Amino acid sequence: MEKSSLITLALSKGRIFEDTVPLLQAAGIEVPESPENSRKLILPTSDPNLRLLVVRASDVPTYVQYGAADIGIAGKDILYEHTKEHPGGLYQPIDLDIAKCRLAVAVRQDFDYEAAVKQGARLRVATKYVNVTREHFARKGVYVDIIKLYGSMELAPLVGLADAIVDIVSTGGTLRANGLVPVEDVAPISSRLIVNQASLKTRAKYLQPLIDAFAAASQGK
């Protein structure tokens, strides 16, 4: 195998990894190991020219943009924040339509969100999606103080840190368990295939067949 023919695909474990495996299988590629059962961060596939890099979801665009991975799969939520802060260097050819969920505003069940928004009061909003949150409320003409958190977002309204949160919602089970309710959708979320632009220019003969295979597999889901 030529070293130049080796393609590195970055993705995160969990739902994105689980939803990606069937797409790879549709392209004739098997993944013999799961990151849930292995401590390895670099996983081989049945294709000697393709390896998987398992990283944090928020780091996938960084690995791809700076060339540590040729190609990656990341949610639109992550990509929006990344491209706002680090424009350029990423090509986003395909919405794979996997790991679907939504970005939503959620509050305590006893919080009158509609009244607070109509009054134009300054809201405190906890989120790790700073840019999309700021733009969402700006479009509504609502002033917000954004508190950046990286996890356990549901705690913020419960302990008085914030009036609302903006976070990923799938089934809503975690919100309900913590006495919160979604009150407004911000954006639908799915995962996209992303490609390092320099890799695509210099190694297209290796990358394009894989991009085409992902496109065909996602359309045939």
Automatic annotation (TrEMBL):
<dbReference type="InterPro" id="IPR018198">
    <property type="entry name" value="ATP_PRibTrfase_CS"/>
</dbReference>
<comment type="similarity">
    <text>Belongs to the ATP phosphoribosyltransferase family. Short subfamily.</text>
</comment>
<comment type="pathway">
    <text>Amino-acid biosynthesis; L-histidine biosynthesis; L-histidine from 5-phospho-alpha-D-ribose 1-diphosphate: step 1/9.</text>
</comment>
<dbReference type="GO" id="GO:0000105">
    <property type="term" value="P:L-histidine biosynthetic process"/>
</dbReference>
<dbReference type="InterPro" id="IPR001348">
    <property type="entry name" value="ATP_PRibTrfase_HisG"/>
</dbReference>
<dbReference type="Pfam" id="PF01634">
    <property type="entry name" value="HisG"/>
</dbReference>
<dbReference type="GO" id="GO:0003879">
    <property type="term" value="F:ATP phosphoribosyltransferase activity"/>
</dbReference>
<dbReference type="GO" id="GO:0005737">
    <property type="term" value="C:cytoplasm"/>
</dbReference>
<keyword id="KW-0328">Glycosyltransferase</keyword>
<dbReference type="InterPro" id="IPR024893">
    <property type="entry name" value="ATP_PRibTrfase_HisG_short"/>
</dbReference>
<protein>
    <recommendedName>
        <fullName>ATP phosphoribosyltransferase</fullName>
        <ecNumber>2.4.2.17</ecNumber>
    </recommendedName>
</protein>
<keyword id="KW-0963">Cytoplasm</keyword>
<dbReference type="InterPro" id="IPR013820">
    <property type="entry name" value="ATP_PRibTrfase_cat"/>
</dbReference>
<dbReference type="GO" id="GO:0005524">
    <property type="term" value="F:ATP binding"/>
</dbReference>
<keyword id="KW-0808">Transferase</keyword>
<keyword id="KW-0547">Nucleotide-binding</keyword>
<keyword id="KW-0067">ATP-binding</keyword>
<keyword id="KW-0028">Amino-acid biosynthesis</keyword>
<comment type="subunit">
    <text>Heteromultimer composed of HisG and HisZ subunits.</text>
</comment>
<feature type="domain" description="ATP phosphoribosyltransferase catalytic">
    <location>
        <begin position="56"/>
        <end position="213"/>
    </location>
</feature>
<comment type="function">
    <text>Catalyzes the condensation of ATP and 5-phosphoribose 1-diphosphate to form N'-(5'-phosphoribosyl)-ATP (PR-ATP). Has a crucial role in the pathway because the rate of histidine biosynthesis seems to be controlled primarily by regulation of HisG enzymatic activity.</text>
</comment>
<keyword id="KW-0368">Histidine biosynthesis</keyword>
